[in-house]
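DM between two lab members

TW: hey, do you still have the HAD-IA family hydrolase entry open?
JB: yeah, one sec
JB: this one, 227 aa:
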Amino acid sequence: MTRLAIFDCDGTLVDSQSSIVSAMAAALRAENQPPLPRAAVLGIVGLSIVEAVAALLPHADPATHRRVAQAYKDAFHAQRGRGEVHEPLYAGIVDALDRLTADGWQLGVATGKSDRGLALCLAHHGLTDRFVTLQTADRHPSKPHPSMLELAMADAGATPADTVMIGDTHYDIAMGRAAGVATVGVTWGYHDTALLIAAGATHIATHPDQLVPLLAAATATATPETA
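TW: and the structure you got?
JB:
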């Protein structure tokens, strides 16, 4: 039996909110779009970038969505070049990954980041070799489409019954449900507990040190539980 724990990145492994908000603000300015509240920008974290911009600017046309999305990528890249990207790991994440690995879990990532963005983030924290599968927005439809999880399971040789999706947004939870896997919503990220439960989270974790017991139990119940 292969047990597979798949993590979202932004808001689950790392706290990248300051970089995301500042890059989006720069992208909106570059395309002469009005500024948006911080909460609105954080609310779409998890979607692929074009879909995220479309959600933020529902009255704009698709060409505008694509231009703002490219401006966002350019702004984020420029921030990284200036050494201004701030993506610290959440406290307790490394220990949780260590404990899960010791407990026999294989680990993966499914994220709205690009291949390049995820690779740089994981390399910065020395985590690249922890994961057997890395799925990004570059090669899949946006969450909540289940494509990322389906390929991750194929990579690891896991089945839905032995796989858990861990994420901080209702997009993560909806993707997990679409793929038929158990889900753990985490409260240290960008969407609140009510949204995670409404999306169908199997369990709710309030701290990374709760992940090991929750993942062990996650496939045994469909009733949301808070550790």
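TW: got it. The longest strand covers residues 105-110. The longest helix spans residues 62-81.
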